[in-house]
Amino acid sequence: MEQDPGGHGWLSPVAGGEDCLWYVDKNGSWHPSFDCEFYTFCCGTCHHRYCCRDPLRLITERQQRHCLAFSPKTIAGIASAVVLFIAIVTTIVCCFMCSCCYLYQRRQHLRTPLQAPAAQYPLYPSGPPVYNPTAPPPYVPAQPSYPGA
Length: 149
Known about the structure:
Layout: E1 2-3, E2 10-11, E3 19-20, E4 23-24, E5 30-31, E6 34-35, E7 41-44, E8 49-52, H1 61-69, H2 72-97, H3 102-111
Antiparallel strand pairs: 1-2, 3-6, 4-5, 7-8
Keywords: Membrane, Transmembrane, Transmembrane helix
Main location: membrane
Organism: Columba livia
C-alpha cells in the first residue's frame, strides 16, 4: 500500500482504471480486451470479466495474464507441440540409422561408390592386341609443313 500524498491515510494498491485483458470463456469463445472507466475495476474470473466498483471482486492485470499463461488449453497446446517436435526428430534420426529405411540406404549408397571386384571389370585387355584388317586406320594428325625445310 502507498501513503496518500496529502497525509490523510493509506491508499489502495489499485486506484481504479484497471483494464480487462482478452480472455477465453468456458465455452472456448474469445473475448477482446476492454477498458474500465476511472474508479472501476476489472472484476470476475479467468473465464468471465466485467467492470465493477467492488475492489473485492477485482482481478488484476497480473492475475489475468496468469490465467492466460497457465490455462489448460495453453498447456495442452504447448505439450502437443513438444511431443510432435520430438516425434518428428526421432523419426528422422531413425530413418538415417535403420538399415531397412530408404534414407539410410541412400546415405550408404552415396558414401560408398560402386566398388566392383577387379577380376569382373579388367582395366586392360587380357592378351596381346588382335589385328583387324577391316578396322579403319588409326587417326594420325597431319604434320605441319615448314617452308624451307
